[in-house]
Amino acid sequence: MASVFKVSKLSRIEGRNLKDSARRMLNRVLINSLMSIFNMKGGGPLQKEAFEKTALFSVIRDAVMTNFPAATELDLRNAEMVLSVY
């Protein structure tokens, strides 16, 4: 379960829309060298770690939902696709 404190801190990072907000949060908390060892699902030709299984993913997801409470599951999956680009 994501920490309420961490979620409230990250939810202060806003964006123009759900995807932009998720991207900004991710850029704020991760450096490039750390981003390079993850992809959304894990595995692949470079055998990366699964970001969706991390506690940070849950915190970012909850923070985005705090900023966009009317977001649907489809909206969240589209935002996850943005995050998977990293």
TrEMBL record:
It comes from the Eukaryota. This is Uncharacterized protein.
